[in-house]
Specification:
Strand 1, helix 1 and strand 2 form a beta-alpha-beta unit. By secondary structure, the chain is an alpha/beta fold. Strands 3-2-1-4-5-6 form a six-stranded parallel beta sheet, with helices on both faces. A five-stranded antiparallel beta sheet has the order 7-8-11-9-10. Helix content is 26%, strand content 29%. Helix 1 crosses helix 5. It comes from Flavobacterium arsenatis. This is Trk system potassium uptake protein TrkA. InterPro entries: NAD(P)-bd_dom_sf, RCK_C, RCK_C_sf, RCK_N, Trk_Ktr_HKT_K-transport.
Amino acid sequence: MKIIVFGLGNFGMSLALSLTETGNEVIGVDRQMDKVNLVKDKISHVICMDSTNELAYEALPLKDADKVVVAIGENEGAAIITTAIIKKLSDVKIISRALSPIHDTVLEAMGIHSIVHPEQESADRLTKQINFKTTLENYQLDNNYTISEVKSKPEFHGKTLAELNTIDKYHLNLVTIIRKREKVNLIGKKSIVKETIGLPTPETVLLEDDILVVFGENKNISFYCDCK
């Protein structure tokens, strides 16, 4: 994957190096040249720029990136502005570092759902989560097991869970299913909401846009995601 990491402090640098070591193309961005020089020969690309300047983004392949990590840890305002600019310029998935409860609130208001707290999560652990290429969200329980949201495979659509004997080959436990439905408010305005269907039964039929919440070993989730 192509991943851009904004902020090459201790956490951002560790993450950029860890992602590179696991086979990703990493572009590191920082406004301080001394930090840029520290990693310029260790990751794919590195750029010295002010990420709060929207015009500077012309030098970045933002639209080609698979994921972006805002790892800025010294300036909460710069981190928020950077996240806002990225969200304005691209629909790339953003993983953003939060520096305080207020920062958490602002990111959630901006629609950022992947929020990390380096004080609680190591760069190595976040690397493992990012490397699940086609998962939507992850909650890693330990180094071996994860709860992940994954898209239902096309060959599952229209079939009951009882019919899907082949799902056993992935050695994953299906916890629940997240499904979209149309909702109409009091003034008749329609919107799409996501809801869980509860505990699936053998008679549950999988639909095209279903998101499966699965539990299992990291290697088996990776196997599910890599199988076409």
